[in-house]
């Protein structure tokens, strides 16, 4: 579908506009009195979100990100589905599943009476997806752009057998200075330390970052706060459908080895991910659906 057809079918004058973005990919620009956002139809991925009157975007988006078929876009909110992390069956399939590197469908766009934009993207199974993951599904991503950024990932089992998934909003938040950043809401929680061989540890105090961090927190509450002192803001994350969360920062060595990051980008990003990961596995019965939601507010 070309850009003109996208706009004819789903554009809303002055509010939701489709245009050709980097790499020739179809992008969506949503603008209203409450916020501005940028979304890639490829990967079903929010790339940027800035509330009205705020100087800084909520998201980190790498200046060296790839915008090409088969590659994941480094930044914003990549969708990990139907598994989080490495291939759970060890078949050599790509990490974090197969939906963050393919084109999604545009299902619906609307503007609510209170001025929020709503964009629904989706995927359904095909012979090609079933060759990767042998299940029938309908996947929907509902994006709400207003005073907060709302995300709902809805998985429907359209087959005749139950299936299990892990998943994530792999959200890259932009921060002013990682040395002046912390995350509260995980105090006393158990976590799997993937940097230290998967050892299980207990979080003492707020999470601070001064080295590579890759942790899966278990039995988490549904509200976390990023304290971004350099930008004089807090980012409040509320979620439903999730009992785990991931904190990730690559730090200097890994950042320098990633072709789609600048060497010092680790100073400006922090992934705080709303997940169903590790033991937080979701099983969906035939004809049933599961909703994972997250809402981000800059304060």
UniProtKB/TrEMBL annotation:
It catalyses: alpha-D-glucose 6-phosphate = beta-D-glucose 6-phosphate. One of its GO terms (molecular function) is carbohydrate binding. GO terms for biological process: carbohydrate metabolic process. SUPFAM superfamilies: Galactose mutarotase-like. Its EC number is 5.1.3.15. The active site is at 170, 273. Pfam families: Aldose_epim. Belongs to the glucose-6-phosphate 1-epimerase family. This is Putative glucose-6-phosphate 1-epimerase. PANTHER family: APOSPORY-ASSOCIATED PROTEIN C-RELATED, GLUCOSE-6-PHOSPHATE 1-EPIMERASE. Keywords: Isomerase.
């Amino acid at each position: 579908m070309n850009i003109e057809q996208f706009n004819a079918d789903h554009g809303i004058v002055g509010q939701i506009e489709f245009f050709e973005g980097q790499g020739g990919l179809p992008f969506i620009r949503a603008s209203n009195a409450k916020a501005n956002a940028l979304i890639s139809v490829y990967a079903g991925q929010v790339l940027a979100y800035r509330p009205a009157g705020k100087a800084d975007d909520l998201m980190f988006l790498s200046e060296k990100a790839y915008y090409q078929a088969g590659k994941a876009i480094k930044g914003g909110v990549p969708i990990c589905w139907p598994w989080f992390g490495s291939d759970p069956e060890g078949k050599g399939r790509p990490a974090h599943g197969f939906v963050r590197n393919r084109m999604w469908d545009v299902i619906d766009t609307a503007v609510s009476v209170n001025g929020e934009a709503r964009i629904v993207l989706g995927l359904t199974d095909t012979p090609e997806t079933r060759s990767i993951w042998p299940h029938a599904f309908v996947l929907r991503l509902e994006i709400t752009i207003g005073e907060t950024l709302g995300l709902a990932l809805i998985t429907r089992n359209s087959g005749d057998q139950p299936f299990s998934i892990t998943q994530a909003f792999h959200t890259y938040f932009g921060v002013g200075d990682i040395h002046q950043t912390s995350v509260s809401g995980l105090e006393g929680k158990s976590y799997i330390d993937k940097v230290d061989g998967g050892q299980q540890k207990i979080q003492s105090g707020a999470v601070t970052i001064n080295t590579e961090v890759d942790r899966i927190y278990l039995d988490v509450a549904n509200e976390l706060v990023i304290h971004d002192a350099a930008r004089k803001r807090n980012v409040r994350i509320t979620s439903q459908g999730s009992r785990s969360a991931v904190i990730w920062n690559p730090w200097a060595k890994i950042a320098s080895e990633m072709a789609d990051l600048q060497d010092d980008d680790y100073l400006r990003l922090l992934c705080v991910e709303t997940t169903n990961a590790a033991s937080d596995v979701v099983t969906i019965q035939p004809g049933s659906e599961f909703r994972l939601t997250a809402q981000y507010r800059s304060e």
